[in-house]
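Reviewer 2 asked us to include a model.

Predict the structure of this chain.
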Amino acid sequence: MVSRFRHAALVGKYQAEGIRGVLEEIARFLVRQGIEVSLERQTALATGIDGYKALTPDELGRECDLAVVVGGDGTMLGIARQLSRHGTPLVGINQGRLGFITDVNIGQYEQALAPMIAGDYEEEHRTMLEGGVWRDRQIIFEGFAMNDVVVSRGASSSMVELKVDIGPEFVANFRSDGLIIGSPTGSTAYALSAGGPILHPAIAGWVLVPIAPHDLSNRPIVLPDTVEIGIEIVAGRDASVSFDMQSLASLLHGDRVVVRRSAHQVRFLHPRGWSYYATLRRKLHWNSGVN
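Predicted model (structure tokens):
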């Protein structure tokens, strides 16, 4: 078999029980396909796997032309943000629960990966969010998110009041437990549980979803991803913002969270025949229509 790839990054959910054996097995499989393998450094340190180069995510992005991620969606989110700037394509092997973006079953990875390594796969690109927090005309925090940006109330406080602008236009002041700005990828995450719609990944848009709004007329809204979204903290104590898993707590009144589309995209490779709708049916337990 002629490999389309030469050097694979192997990333694992290193806290998972039994992950070392799984990663070693996948590494040996990739080597048999004629591919050099490097482990993400934290994965190597936590599992004790040696015999392969251990590289930082930035080094993986510079040296590898494929990333194989073993775990759940959280593991994929963490490494995807870091590799997106390098344009490294990612394949997800699901060892978690839902697995919307880690779609290769752990028990079928050989059958799925072999043709993909030879160049037989489907590729899609996912948009990302970026932005930061401004205080007194200075930026004090910056972040990237593949799923969502969430501004929420403090653990010990009541609801927050948030002033929302879309580009130069004022939209409304929302009194709620918080607001979610979700990408199409993130529309099946927190935004979905808060009552937001599902966005197909090909849609160039965001979802803006209030969390437990005081006014029941405050409904989720779908926005074009060409706009810049501003969220100002008007009232409420100890509000926080998170860009996926990167958080800043104790926002002050007058702090402004600004979110826009990132210049970087995430590249996913899927087995031939992959279907987004089949993923929704399987993960959300929709009726398949088969008697």
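The mean pLDDT is 93. Helices lie at 19-32, 41-47, 57-63, 73-83, 109-117, 190-193, 276-284. We have added this to the supplementary material.
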